[in-house]
Amino acid sequence: MTPFEFCLVTFAISIVAGGLGSLLGLGGGLIVIPALTLLLHVDIRYAIGASIVSVIATSSGAAAAYVRERMTNLRVAMVLEIATTLGALTGAYCAGRVGGRALEVIFGLIMGYSAIMMLRRRESRESVGRAPWADRLRLHGSYYDKALGREVAYRVRGTRVGLVLMYIAGVMSGLLGIGSGALKVPAMDLAMRLPIKVSTATSNFMIGVTAAAGAGIYFMRGDIVPFIAAPVAVGVSAGALLGSRLLGRIRSDRLRAAFVIILLLVSLQMLLKGLFK
Amino acid sequence: MTNENSPLPTAEGKVRRAEAVISTILRTGVFASMAVIAVGAVLTLLRHPSYATSPQELIRIRGALTAGPHSFGTLWRGIRLLNGQAFAALGLLLLILTPVARVGASILIFLALRDRVYLMITSTVFILLVVSFFLGRG
Protein backbone atom coordinates (compact mmCIF):
# COMPACT_ATOMS: atom_id res chain seq x y z
CA MET A 1 0.00 0.00 0.00
CA THR A 2 1.36 3.40 -0.95
CA PRO A 3 0.75 6.48 1.22
CA PHE A 4 -1.68 7.70 -1.44
CA GLU A 5 -3.68 4.47 -1.29
CA PHE A 6 -3.65 4.62 2.50
CA CYS A 7 -5.27 8.06 2.34
CA LEU A 8 -7.82 6.85 -0.23
CA VAL A 9 -8.88 3.90 1.96
CA THR A 10 -9.13 6.18 5.01
CA PHE A 11 -11.16 8.63 2.92
CA ALA A 12 -13.58 5.93 1.72
CA ILE A 13 -14.20 4.55 5.22
CA SER A 14 -14.73 8.08 6.48
CA ILE A 15 -17.46 8.80 3.93
CA VAL A 16 -19.44 5.88 5.34
CA ALA A 17 -18.77 7.02 8.92
CA GLY A 18 -19.90 10.56 8.13
CA GLY A 19 -23.06 9.40 6.36
CA LEU A 20 -24.14 7.06 9.14
CA GLY A 21 -23.09 9.48 11.86
CA SER A 22 -25.06 12.36 10.40
CA LEU A 23 -28.25 10.26 10.29
CA LEU A 24 -27.93 8.76 13.76
CA GLY A 25 -26.64 11.81 15.63
CA LEU A 26 -23.28 10.14 16.27
CA GLY A 27 -19.83 11.44 15.53
CA GLY A 28 -18.63 8.58 13.41
CA GLY A 29 -15.80 7.91 15.87
CA LEU A 30 -17.30 4.53 16.57
CA ILE A 31 -16.54 3.54 12.98
CA VAL A 32 -13.35 5.56 12.47
CA ILE A 33 -11.48 4.33 15.57
CA PRO A 34 -11.89 0.56 14.97
CA ALA A 35 -11.31 0.95 11.22
CA LEU A 36 -8.07 2.86 11.73
CA THR A 37 -6.68 0.69 14.52
CA LEU A 38 -7.79 -2.78 13.40
CA LEU A 39 -7.77 -2.42 9.61
CA LEU A 40 -4.99 0.10 9.00
CA HIS A 41 -2.94 -0.57 12.18
CA VAL A 42 -2.82 3.05 13.26
CA ASP A 43 -1.70 3.82 16.83
CA ILE A 44 -4.77 4.31 19.10
CA ARG A 45 -3.50 7.76 20.11
CA TYR A 46 -3.67 9.08 16.53
CA ALA A 47 -6.92 7.19 15.90
CA ILE A 48 -8.56 9.06 18.78
CA GLY A 49 -7.16 12.34 17.46
CA ALA A 50 -8.71 11.57 14.07
CA SER A 51 -11.95 10.54 15.75
CA ILE A 52 -12.29 13.92 17.47
CA VAL A 53 -11.85 15.58 14.08
CA SER A 54 -14.44 13.21 12.64
CA VAL A 55 -16.97 14.22 15.30
CA ILE A 56 -16.56 17.90 14.48
CA ALA A 57 -16.75 17.27 10.73
CA THR A 58 -19.94 15.20 11.03
CA SER A 59 -21.50 17.77 13.30
CA SER A 60 -20.70 20.84 11.22
CA GLY A 61 -21.36 19.16 7.87
CA ALA A 62 -24.76 17.78 8.82
CA ALA A 63 -25.91 20.56 11.14
CA ALA A 64 -25.59 23.10 8.31
CA ALA A 65 -28.46 21.29 6.57
CA TYR A 66 -30.48 20.36 9.68
CA VAL A 67 -30.55 23.90 11.05
CA ARG A 68 -31.74 25.24 7.71
CA GLU A 69 -34.47 22.59 7.56
CA ARG A 70 -35.45 23.41 11.18
CA MET A 71 -34.86 19.80 12.23
CA THR A 72 -32.49 20.94 14.97
CA ASN A 73 -33.99 22.40 18.13
CA LEU A 74 -31.49 25.21 18.62
CA ARG A 75 -32.76 26.25 22.03
CA VAL A 76 -32.61 22.74 23.42
CA ALA A 77 -29.11 22.39 21.96
CA MET A 78 -27.83 25.61 23.48
CA VAL A 79 -29.26 24.92 26.92
CA LEU A 80 -27.84 21.39 26.98
CA GLU A 81 -24.46 22.53 25.65
CA ILE A 82 -23.76 24.14 29.01
CA ALA A 83 -23.98 20.72 30.62
CA THR A 84 -21.99 18.88 27.93
CA THR A 85 -19.10 21.36 27.80
CA LEU A 86 -18.94 21.45 31.60
CA GLY A 87 -18.92 17.65 31.54
CA ALA A 88 -16.24 17.57 28.82
CA LEU A 89 -14.05 19.88 30.92
CA THR A 90 -14.52 17.67 33.96
CA GLY A 91 -13.71 14.61 31.89
CA ALA A 92 -10.60 16.15 30.33
CA TYR A 93 -9.46 17.23 33.80
CA CYS A 94 -10.00 13.76 35.25
CA ALA A 95 -8.52 11.88 32.27
CA GLY A 96 -5.73 9.67 33.49
CA ARG A 97 -6.87 9.84 37.10
CA VAL A 98 -9.81 7.50 36.69
CA GLY A 99 -9.63 3.86 35.62
CA GLY A 100 -10.62 3.55 31.97
CA ARG A 101 -11.86 -0.03 32.17
CA ALA A 102 -14.39 0.52 34.95
CA LEU A 103 -15.71 3.49 32.97
CA GLU A 104 -16.11 1.43 29.84
CA VAL A 105 -18.11 -1.18 31.74
CA ILE A 106 -20.33 1.47 33.34
CA PHE A 107 -21.00 3.26 30.06
CA GLY A 108 -21.50 -0.01 28.25
CA LEU A 109 -24.21 -0.87 30.77
CA ILE A 110 -25.82 2.59 30.52
CA MET A 111 -25.97 2.34 26.74
CA GLY A 112 -27.34 -1.19 26.81
CA TYR A 113 -30.03 -0.04 29.22
CA SER A 114 -30.88 2.97 27.00
CA ALA A 115 -31.15 0.71 23.98
CA ILE A 116 -33.64 -1.56 25.75
CA MET A 117 -35.67 1.40 27.00
CA MET A 118 -35.75 2.88 23.50
CA LEU A 119 -36.97 -0.42 22.11
CA ARG A 120 -39.87 -0.42 24.53
CA ARG A 121 -41.00 3.13 24.00
CA ARG A 122 -43.40 3.79 21.18
CA GLU A 123 -43.01 6.84 19.01
CA SER A 124 -46.63 7.86 19.44
CA ARG A 125 -47.23 9.34 22.84
CA GLU A 126 -48.58 12.57 24.21
CA SER A 127 -46.23 14.55 26.35
CA VAL A 128 -48.61 16.17 28.76
CA GLY A 129 -48.15 17.40 32.29
CA ARG A 130 -46.21 20.30 33.61
CA ALA A 131 -42.84 21.27 32.18
CA PRO A 132 -41.90 24.49 34.00
CA TRP A 133 -38.30 24.67 32.74
CA ALA A 134 -39.18 23.89 29.14
CA ASP A 135 -41.96 26.49 29.27
CA ARG A 136 -39.68 29.10 30.78
CA LEU A 137 -36.90 28.43 28.26
CA ARG A 138 -39.36 28.15 25.34
CA LEU A 139 -38.01 24.76 24.30
CA HIS A 140 -41.11 23.38 22.61
CA GLY A 141 -40.97 23.27 18.85
CA SER A 142 -42.02 21.74 15.57
CA TYR A 143 -40.41 20.44 12.40
CA TYR A 144 -41.52 19.48 8.93
CA ASP A 145 -41.38 15.72 8.44
CA LYS A 146 -40.83 14.92 4.75
CA ALA A 147 -41.62 11.21 5.28
CA LEU A 148 -45.03 12.11 6.77
CA GLY A 149 -45.53 15.15 4.56
CA ARG A 150 -46.65 17.35 7.41
CA GLU A 151 -45.49 19.61 10.24
CA VAL A 152 -44.96 17.77 13.54
CA ALA A 153 -45.31 19.79 16.75
CA TYR A 154 -43.84 18.50 20.01
CA ARG A 155 -43.57 19.49 23.64
CA VAL A 156 -40.40 19.11 25.65
CA ARG A 157 -40.21 17.95 29.26
CA GLY A 158 -37.60 16.64 31.68
CA THR A 159 -35.17 19.50 31.08
CA ARG A 160 -33.41 19.05 34.43
CA VAL A 161 -32.96 15.30 33.97
CA GLY A 162 -31.74 16.05 30.45
CA LEU A 163 -29.12 18.46 31.81
CA VAL A 164 -27.81 15.85 34.27
CA LEU A 165 -27.61 13.19 31.54
CA MET A 166 -25.83 15.61 29.20
CA TYR A 167 -23.27 16.36 31.90
CA ILE A 168 -22.57 12.62 32.16
CA ALA A 169 -22.34 12.38 28.36
CA GLY A 170 -19.89 15.31 28.38
CA VAL A 171 -17.69 13.63 31.00
CA MET A 172 -17.58 10.56 28.80
CA SER A 173 -16.53 12.66 25.79
CA GLY A 174 -13.73 14.28 27.75
CA LEU A 175 -12.48 10.96 29.10
CA LEU A 176 -12.76 8.77 26.02
CA GLY A 177 -12.36 11.24 23.13
CA ILE A 178 -15.72 10.60 21.51
CA GLY A 179 -18.74 12.78 20.75
CA SER A 180 -20.99 10.59 22.91
CA GLY A 181 -24.01 11.05 20.65
CA ALA A 182 -24.81 7.46 21.66
CA LEU A 183 -25.75 8.87 25.08
CA LYS A 184 -27.17 12.20 23.94
CA VAL A 185 -29.79 10.77 21.61
CA PRO A 186 -31.34 8.42 24.22
CA ALA A 187 -31.27 11.22 26.80
CA MET A 188 -33.30 13.51 24.53
CA ASP A 189 -35.48 10.68 23.31
CA LEU A 190 -36.30 9.09 26.68
CA ALA A 191 -36.05 11.87 29.25
CA MET A 192 -37.06 14.91 27.20
CA ARG A 193 -39.45 13.21 24.80
CA LEU A 194 -38.15 14.81 21.60
CA PRO A 195 -39.09 13.12 18.31
CA ILE A 196 -36.28 10.81 17.14
CA LYS A 197 -35.36 12.96 14.13
CA VAL A 198 -35.13 16.06 16.29
CA SER A 199 -33.05 14.09 18.82
CA THR A 200 -30.49 12.94 16.24
CA ALA A 201 -30.33 16.35 14.53
CA THR A 202 -29.94 18.17 17.84
CA SER A 203 -27.35 15.66 19.06
CA ASN A 204 -25.51 16.26 15.80
CA PHE A 205 -25.49 19.97 16.45
CA MET A 206 -24.16 19.56 20.00
CA ILE A 207 -21.44 16.95 19.51
CA GLY A 208 -19.36 19.45 17.53
CA VAL A 209 -19.13 21.77 20.51
CA THR A 210 -18.49 18.92 22.96
CA ALA A 211 -15.70 17.62 20.73
CA ALA A 212 -14.26 21.09 20.13
CA ALA A 213 -13.85 21.41 23.90
CA GLY A 214 -11.54 18.40 23.77
CA ALA A 215 -10.04 18.94 20.32
CA GLY A 216 -7.99 21.97 21.34
CA ILE A 217 -6.26 19.79 23.91
CA TYR A 218 -5.59 17.00 21.41
CA PHE A 219 -4.32 19.42 18.75
CA MET A 220 -1.86 21.10 21.10
CA ARG A 221 -0.64 17.69 22.25
CA GLY A 222 0.11 16.72 18.63
CA ASP A 223 -2.33 13.79 18.57
CA ILE A 224 -4.02 15.13 15.44
CA VAL A 225 -1.67 14.02 12.66
CA PRO A 226 -2.53 15.50 9.23
CA PHE A 227 -1.56 12.34 7.33
CA ILE A 228 -4.34 10.42 9.14
CA ALA A 229 -6.76 13.10 10.31
CA ALA A 230 -6.95 15.09 7.05
CA PRO A 231 -8.39 12.30 4.86
CA VAL A 232 -10.77 11.49 7.73
CA ALA A 233 -11.89 15.13 7.93
CA VAL A 234 -12.57 15.44 4.20
CA GLY A 235 -14.25 12.03 3.91
CA VAL A 236 -16.46 12.48 6.94
CA SER A 237 -17.46 15.99 5.86
CA ALA A 238 -18.46 14.69 2.43
CA GLY A 239 -20.38 11.79 3.99
CA ALA A 240 -22.18 14.09 6.40
CA LEU A 241 -23.13 16.56 3.66
CA LEU A 242 -24.62 13.66 1.67
CA GLY A 243 -26.22 11.85 4.63
CA SER A 244 -27.93 14.95 5.96
CA ARG A 245 -30.00 15.12 2.76
CA LEU A 246 -31.63 11.84 3.72
CA LEU A 247 -32.77 12.38 7.30
CA GLY A 248 -36.01 14.16 6.46
CA ARG A 249 -37.14 11.41 4.12
CA ILE A 250 -36.44 8.39 6.33
CA ARG A 251 -39.33 6.95 8.35
CA SER A 252 -38.93 7.64 12.06
CA ASP A 253 -39.51 4.05 13.20
CA ARG A 254 -36.78 2.78 10.88
CA LEU A 255 -34.35 5.44 12.05
CA ARG A 256 -35.13 4.50 15.62
CA ALA A 257 -34.59 0.79 14.95
CA ALA A 258 -31.26 1.52 13.24
CA PHE A 259 -30.19 3.63 16.19
CA VAL A 260 -31.09 0.93 18.72
CA ILE A 261 -29.11 -1.69 16.78
CA ILE A 262 -26.02 0.55 16.64
CA LEU A 263 -26.45 1.40 20.32
CA LEU A 264 -26.52 -2.30 21.26
CA LEU A 265 -23.39 -2.96 19.18
CA VAL A 266 -21.56 -0.04 20.79
CA SER A 267 -22.54 -1.07 24.28
CA LEU A 268 -21.37 -4.63 23.57
CA GLN A 269 -18.08 -3.31 22.18
CA MET A 270 -17.58 -1.13 25.28
CA LEU A 271 -18.39 -3.99 27.66
CA LEU A 272 -16.04 -6.38 25.89
CA LYS A 273 -13.26 -3.78 25.89
CA GLY A 274 -13.81 -3.01 29.56
CA LEU A 275 -14.03 -6.62 30.69
CA PHE A 276 -11.49 -8.45 28.54
CA LYS A 277 -9.00 -5.89 27.24
CA MET B 1 -50.31 28.35 28.95
CA THR B 2 -50.03 25.64 26.34
CA ASN B 3 -49.87 27.94 23.35
CA GLU B 4 -46.30 28.81 24.23
CA ASN B 5 -44.48 30.43 21.35
CA SER B 6 -46.82 32.56 19.34
CA PRO B 7 -44.18 35.01 18.17
CA LEU B 8 -44.86 37.98 15.97
CA PRO B 9 -44.15 37.40 12.29
CA THR B 10 -41.17 39.72 12.50
CA ALA B 11 -39.70 37.82 15.46
CA GLU B 12 -40.23 34.58 13.55
CA GLY B 13 -38.44 36.10 10.57
CA LYS B 14 -35.52 37.12 12.75
CA VAL B 15 -35.19 33.59 14.09
CA ARG B 16 -35.17 32.24 10.52
CA ARG B 17 -32.42 34.68 9.64
CA ALA B 18 -30.44 33.66 12.70
CA GLU B 19 -30.77 30.02 11.65
CA ALA B 20 -29.55 30.89 8.17
CA VAL B 21 -26.50 32.66 9.65
CA ILE B 22 -25.60 29.68 11.84
CA SER B 23 -26.06 27.29 8.93
CA THR B 24 -23.86 29.44 6.69
CA ILE B 25 -21.08 29.61 9.28
CA LEU B 26 -21.02 25.82 9.63
CA ARG B 27 -21.07 25.26 5.87
CA THR B 28 -18.35 27.86 5.24
CA GLY B 29 -16.16 26.35 7.96
CA VAL B 30 -16.47 22.86 6.50
CA PHE B 31 -15.83 23.93 2.90
CA ALA B 32 -12.91 26.21 3.82
CA SER B 33 -11.33 23.39 5.78
CA MET B 34 -11.81 20.92 2.91
CA ALA B 35 -10.32 23.39 0.43
CA VAL B 36 -7.21 24.08 2.54
CA ILE B 37 -6.71 20.35 3.13
CA ALA B 38 -7.02 19.74 -0.62
CA VAL B 39 -4.29 22.32 -1.26
CA GLY B 40 -2.18 20.51 1.32
CA ALA B 41 -2.74 17.18 -0.42
CA VAL B 42 -1.75 18.59 -3.82
CA LEU B 43 1.37 20.27 -2.41
CA THR B 44 2.39 17.05 -0.67
CA LEU B 45 2.01 15.00 -3.85
CA LEU B 46 3.90 17.58 -5.92
CA ARG B 47 6.80 17.52 -3.50
CA HIS B 48 6.78 13.75 -2.97
CA PRO B 49 5.53 12.09 -6.19
CA SER B 50 6.76 8.76 -4.83
CA TYR B 51 3.91 8.83 -2.26
CA ALA B 52 1.61 7.69 -5.06
CA THR B 53 3.81 4.84 -6.25
CA SER B 54 6.07 3.45 -3.54
CA PRO B 55 4.76 1.23 -0.70
CA GLN B 56 8.13 1.78 0.97
CA GLU B 57 7.15 5.39 1.65
CA LEU B 58 4.17 4.34 3.78
CA ILE B 59 6.43 2.30 6.04
CA ARG B 60 8.73 5.31 6.37
CA ILE B 61 5.85 7.68 7.17
CA ARG B 62 4.42 5.27 9.74
CA GLY B 63 7.75 5.18 11.49
CA ALA B 64 7.97 8.97 11.62
CA LEU B 65 4.44 9.80 12.86
CA THR B 66 5.77 11.42 15.98
CA ALA B 67 3.48 14.42 16.08
CA GLY B 68 1.72 16.83 13.79
CA PRO B 69 2.68 20.51 13.70
CA HIS B 70 0.95 21.64 16.86
CA SER B 71 2.34 25.02 17.76
CA PHE B 72 1.27 28.09 15.85
CA GLY B 73 4.93 28.97 15.20
CA THR B 74 5.78 25.74 13.37
CA LEU B 75 2.43 25.84 11.59
CA TRP B 76 3.08 29.34 10.25
CA ARG B 77 6.64 28.50 9.18
CA GLY B 78 5.31 25.45 7.35
CA ILE B 79 2.68 27.49 5.54
CA ARG B 80 5.28 30.00 4.35
CA LEU B 81 7.45 27.15 3.04
CA LEU B 82 4.38 25.76 1.21
CA ASN B 83 4.64 22.57 3.26
CA GLY B 84 1.67 20.30 2.43
CA GLN B 85 1.40 18.85 5.94
CA ALA B 86 1.21 22.36 7.39
CA PHE B 87 -1.66 23.24 5.04
CA ALA B 88 -3.50 20.08 6.05
CA ALA B 89 -2.96 20.94 9.72
CA LEU B 90 -4.30 24.45 9.10
CA GLY B 91 -7.39 22.94 7.46
CA LEU B 92 -7.92 20.73 10.52
CA LEU B 93 -7.54 23.73 12.80
CA LEU B 94 -10.20 25.59 10.78
CA LEU B 95 -12.51 22.63 11.23
CA ILE B 96 -11.92 22.54 15.00
CA LEU B 97 -12.62 26.25 15.27
CA THR B 98 -15.90 26.05 13.30
CA PRO B 99 -18.12 25.05 16.28
CA VAL B 100 -16.40 27.72 18.38
CA ALA B 101 -17.21 30.33 15.73
CA ARG B 102 -20.79 29.08 15.67
CA VAL B 103 -21.18 29.59 19.43
CA GLY B 104 -19.58 33.03 19.13
CA ALA B 105 -22.03 33.99 16.40
CA SER B 106 -24.95 32.76 18.52
CA ILE B 107 -23.96 35.23 21.23
CA LEU B 108 -24.17 38.09 18.73
CA ILE B 109 -27.49 36.79 17.40
CA PHE B 110 -29.13 36.68 20.84
CA LEU B 111 -27.66 40.08 21.60
CA ALA B 112 -29.36 41.42 18.48
CA LEU B 113 -32.61 39.66 19.39
CA ARG B 114 -32.38 41.12 22.93
CA ASP B 115 -32.91 37.65 24.37
CA ARG B 116 -31.21 37.97 27.74
CA VAL B 117 -31.67 34.39 28.94
CA TYR B 118 -30.16 32.85 25.82
CA LEU B 119 -27.47 35.51 25.67
CA MET B 120 -26.33 34.29 29.08
CA ILE B 121 -26.62 30.63 28.09
CA THR B 122 -24.53 30.96 24.90
CA SER B 123 -21.96 33.20 26.63
CA THR B 124 -21.49 30.56 29.32
CA VAL B 125 -20.90 27.88 26.67
CA PHE B 126 -18.41 30.15 24.89
CA ILE B 127 -16.48 30.83 28.12
CA LEU B 128 -16.35 27.11 28.89
CA LEU B 129 -14.97 26.45 25.38
CA VAL B 130 -12.28 29.11 25.73
CA VAL B 131 -11.34 27.72 29.16
CA SER B 132 -10.96 24.27 27.61
CA PHE B 133 -8.53 25.57 24.98
CA PHE B 134 -6.37 27.14 27.66
CA LEU B 135 -6.63 24.09 29.90
CA GLY B 136 -5.14 22.08 27.04
CA ARG B 137 -1.98 24.14 27.01
CA GLY B 138 -1.30 23.80 30.71
Summarize the helices and strands and which ones pair or pack.
The complex is a heterodimer of chains A (277) and B (138).
Chain A: H1 3-24, H2 29-39, H3 44-68, H4 74-94, H5 100-120, H6 132-136, E1 141-145, E2 150-154, H7 159-176, H8 181-191, H9 196-221, H10 226-243, H11 252-276
Antiparallel strand pairs in A: 1-2
Helix pairs in contact in A: 1-2, 1-3, 1-10, 2-3, 3-9, 3-10, 4-7, 4-9, 5-8, 5-11, 7-8, 8-9
Chain B: H1 9-47, H2 55-63, H3 72-80, H4 84-112, H5 116-137
Helix pairs in contact in B: 1-4, 3-4, 4-5
The 3D shape of chain B can be described as: elongated
Radius of gyration of chain B over all CA atoms, rounded: 21 Å
Mean pLDDT of chain A, nearest integer?
84
The total tally of domains of chain A equals 1
End-to-end separation of chain A in angstroms reads: 29 Å
- Largest interface between protein chains, with number of residues from each side: A-B, 64 and 63 residues
Helix content of chain A: over 70%
User: Could you give a short account of the major beta sheet of chain B?
Assistant: none
Largest sheet of chain A: 2 strands, antiparallel
Strand order of the largest sheet of chain A: 1-2
Number of domain units of chain B: 1
Low-confidence stretches of chain A: none
- The low-confidence parts of chain B are 1-8
Number of strands of chain B: 0
Question: What order do the SSEs of chain A take from the amino end to the carboxyl end, as H and E?
Answer: HHHHHHEEHHHHH
Number of strands of chain A: 2
Helix content of chain B: over 70%
Give the radius of gyration of chain A.
18 Å
Gross morphology of chain A is globular
